[in-house]
Amino acid sequence: MKWVIGSSLKYRYIVMALAAGLMFFGVQQLRHSSIDVFPEFAPPRVEVQTPALGLSASSVEALVTVPLEQALAGIPNLDELRSTSVEQLSSILLIFDRGTDLLDARQLVNERIAGISPTLPTWASPPVMIQPLSSTSRVLKVGLTSTDPNLDLIDMSMVSYWKIRTRLLQVPGVANVPIWGERLEMLQVQVEPERLERESVPLENIATATADALEA
Q1: Cβ atoms 128, 48 nearer than 8 A
Q2: For residue 86, what are the β-bridge partners?
Q3: What angle do CA 167, 172, 178 make, to 5 degrees?
Q4: Are 79 and 96 within 8 A, CB to CB?
Q5: Span 112-143, pLDDT tens digits
Q6: In 30, 118, 198, 202, which residue has its Cα 20 to 30 A from 64's Cα atom?
Q7: Would you list the DSSP string of 81-130?
């Protein structure tokens, strides 16, 4: 022991250089380490989101969230089911028992979604399962406001979707950037019932012509 201490003091500059080299090597290896620093402590979770353009929060709850909850409620090993309904978006979080295989849980959820999707309103997009996330994955929430009176909610939604979201997805390690409360720009066809009756044009013809124009 005395020899080690004496040699370290005698060749202290070499010891300091070796220590600095080891620290530098350790920092470099830590940056490229494939091991998660924080072990996963949360139970397996699966989140399902369903956009429903043009629907209020109450309509989303009644027409989208409730049917999905009823279809997903009986999945094996399901411990807890939580849902959130906001304007134009339904989000359902399924929490499974600890020890449940996440891939098996996602497969069961996908089968239930495939069965309930045809019964949802036609103006609601198909339900989508969010990518698997760890308990420490959501690191930032951003709120968007504007003091410009000429910039309405639709304009801010377009900015957040096409500019902010696109740039955030380009950041290495970012898997998903969900947007809550957005109002997407859309085209609306408004008819005059009196004129339709006068011209003897059924409403189905208007819907068909509109669909054909969008697909053209």
Answers
A1: yes
A2: 89
A3: 50
A4: yes
A5: 999 988 888 877 888 988 877 766 666 788 88
A6: 202
A7: EEEEEETTEEEEEEEEPTT--HHHHHHHHHHHHHHHGGGS-TTBPPPEEP
Delimit the domains of the chain by residue range: 2-31, 45-129
Kindly report, residue by residue over 80-122, the tens digit of the pLDDT. 999 999 888 899 999 999 888 889 999 999 999 999 888 888 7
Contacts 24+ apart (CB under 8 A), 154-161: 154/183, 154/184, 154/185, 157/182, 157/183, 157/184, 157/185, 158/184, 158/185
Topology (CATH level 3) of domain 45-129:
Alpha-Beta Plaits (3.30.70)
Q: Whole-model pTM above 0.85?
A: no
Question: What span, in angstroms and rounded, lies between the C-alpha atoms of 216 and 214?
Answer: 6
Q: CB 45: neighbour CB atoms within 10 A? A: 19
d(Cα 60, Cα 114) in Å, to the nearest integer?
Answer: 19
